[in-house]
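can u do me a favor
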């Protein structure tokens, strides 16, 4: 009896010791991965960012290989620890990710990577080095994202984290663009900050020619900034931190809901994955379609052709408006290439609709296919889901359709005998459509906007001010705010006290938010234009006003003015771009002091309007 008791006691003691050791070893390996990935990124930036001789470059890469060896050892420990009893428990997907990373970390031991790939000729780096850089970057993002996950679970307000994440990304992008390897010749801090802000805020306004002033590395930095800025760094870090994790806190979900725009916390993280998957899927599909439409004779090899297609696909879907072609989309590659133009226009529209409008209609499409299979193949009853396409989706799609239809028609009418005069009827229609799409925060232009008639410029300003839809990559006051203003006008005209749309009553809170956005957007743009006119006294008011609307709407169109602005004017546009991307509501919610709910109400009075 005593022997059984001591045996059980010894077993429990041994179990506790193993579990404690496992927990401690897991924690130590995790912190080691954090430090090693940070050191590896430091070595990578030091090597790539500055000109080094061949001997020093070899030394840097040898040090990176040592870091990778140590990371491989740490992941090997973590995989082995899973076999031991006790916490932390590792989910199946997390385990698969660790094993995959372990396999990738081991590949440098084998001579399996060819050195004759064209990407090596473009970048000047061996394929093995580029593979190591990509692997280090992946581990760095994943490990530090898991650290940031704890910040999202804190009591720090979600809107503040959203704002600070963009500030952090802009500062990081500025630092990378100031590296000697990023530009053909050194650029000023203001130009680096302007370009970084324009990329992160997916605007497209540039003080430097992206095609000629930035190197291969600098263009890749801009591409990454566009991607992170379009979706949001919080979305990316949360995705990498959440993949393989089955535990999510309520505060983490609340913080992310301001970014992902989901009221249902239960479906928040599935929506988060949908954002990433939709983005990658659409951008790769767009890049593939563009690749086959681009003339092979315009590129030295297939790799440069695909990189060109991928850059423009990401830039279009994120509504950024950046181009690596000299003179942008007025380059001969795009001239009268209406297939390419329509592909880019479609990417702009999809990106401007918003991720959850896309997923909302995708769910309806999948349900329709499922019901078709159930009815005609399985001979089963249909599945009915009421209100699958919600009121937001209906309002956004309807508003977007009418804005594009009216915009295309008016552009064609205004410029029929102007810049469109030498085109055929079909070419006029396609050019008008593209020119109506691009002010919706995209910034690509196949025409010189400084040659447009004044009514066309005013139409473009209006489209830039309205912008894209909530939850999308675009800026502006958003289509829903504009739609609510129109609906409110009709409601007042008909003597109604409430706004009704598709058998739904719009909440008073939504109307008040739309009013706030519209009012402060106009005030912000007018103040910015006033300041611009002070610093640019020789420039026409039309050009300054156009520039201010373009910056606030994160559009990127210009009347050939941006590059000639003085430094104070550039900083005004930097603030406008940031304000347009973050959103007025977000800034108010993040930094205006909250008041407690009042348990009483004051007597109501009418104000003369």
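np, heres the sequence
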């Amino acid at each position: 009896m005593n022997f059984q008791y001591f045996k059980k006691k010894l077993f429990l003691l041994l179990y506790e010791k193993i579990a404690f050791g496992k927990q401690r070893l897991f924690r130590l390996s995790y912190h080691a991965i954090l430090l090693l990935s940070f050191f590896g990124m430091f070595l990578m930036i030091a090597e790539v960012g500055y000109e080094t001789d061949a001997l020093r470059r070899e030394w840097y890469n040898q040090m990176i290989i040592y870091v990778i060896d140590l990371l491989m050892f740490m992941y090997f420990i973590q995989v082995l620890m899973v076999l031991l009893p006790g916490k932390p428990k590792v989910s199946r997907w997390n385990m698969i990710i660790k094993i995959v990373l372990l396999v990738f970390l081991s590949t440098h031991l084998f001579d399996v990577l060819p050195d004759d790939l064209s990407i090596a000729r473009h970048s000047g780096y061996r394929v093995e080095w580029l593979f190591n850089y990509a692997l280090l970057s992946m581990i760095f993002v994943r490990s530090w994202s898991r650290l940031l996950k704890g910040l999202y679970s804190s009591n720090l307000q979600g809107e503040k984290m959203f704002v600070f994440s963009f500030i952090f990304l802009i500062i990081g992008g500025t630092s990378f663009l100031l590296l000697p390897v990023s530009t053909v010749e050194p650029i000023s801090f203001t130009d680096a900050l302007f370009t970084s802000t324009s990329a992160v805020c997916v605007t497209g306004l540039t003080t430097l020619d992206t095609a000629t002033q930035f190197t291969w590395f600098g263009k890749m930095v801009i591409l990454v900034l566009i991607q992170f800025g379009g979706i949001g760094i919080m979305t990316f870090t949360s995705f990498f931190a959440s993949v393989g994790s089955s535990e999510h806190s309520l505060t983490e979900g609340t913080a992310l809901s301001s970014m992902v725009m989901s009221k249902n916390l239960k479906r928040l993280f599935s929506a988060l994955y949908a954002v990433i998957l939709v983005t990658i899927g659409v951008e790769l599909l767009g890049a593939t379609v563009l690749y086959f439409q681009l003339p092979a004779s315009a590129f030295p090899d297939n790799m440069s052709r695909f990189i060109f297609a991928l850059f423009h696909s990401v830039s279009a879907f994120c509504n950024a408006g950046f181009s690596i072609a000299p003179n942008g989309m007025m380059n001969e590659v795009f001239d009268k290439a209406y297939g390419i133009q329509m592909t880019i226009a479609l990417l702009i529209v999809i990106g401007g609709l918003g991720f959850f409008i896309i997923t909302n209609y995708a769910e309806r499409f999948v349900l329709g296919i499922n019901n078709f299979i159930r009815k005609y193949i399985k001979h089963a009853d249909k599945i009915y889901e009421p209100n699958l396409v919600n009121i937001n989706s209906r309002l956004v799609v309807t508003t977007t359709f009418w804005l594009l239809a009216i915009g295309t028609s008016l552009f064609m009418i205004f410029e029929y005998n102007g810049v469109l005069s030498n085109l055929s009827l079909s070419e006029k229609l396609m050019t008008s459509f593209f020119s109506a799409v691009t002010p919706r925060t995209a910034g690509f232009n196949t025409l010189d906007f400084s040659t447009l008639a004044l009514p066309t410029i005013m139409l473009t300003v209006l489209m830039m001010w309205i912008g894209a839809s909530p939850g999308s990559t675009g800026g502006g006051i958003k289509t829903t705010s504009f739609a609510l203003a129109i609906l409110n006008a009709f409601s007042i005209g008909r003597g109604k006290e409430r706004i009704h749309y598709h058998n739904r009553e719009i909440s008073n809170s939504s109307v008040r938010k739309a009013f706030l956005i519209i009012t402060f957007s106009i005030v912000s743009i007018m103040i910015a234009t006033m300041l611009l006119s002070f610093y640019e006294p020789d420039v026409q008011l039309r050009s300054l006003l156009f520039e201010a609307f373009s910056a606030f709407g994160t559009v990127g169109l210009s009347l050939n003015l941006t590059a000639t602005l003085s430094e104070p004017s550039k900083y005004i546009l930097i603030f406008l771009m940031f304000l347009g991307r973050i959103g007025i509501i977000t800034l108010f919610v993040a930094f205006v002091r909250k008041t407690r709910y009042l348990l009483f109400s004051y007597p109501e009075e009418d104000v003369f309007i």
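The mean pLDDT is 79. hope that helps!!
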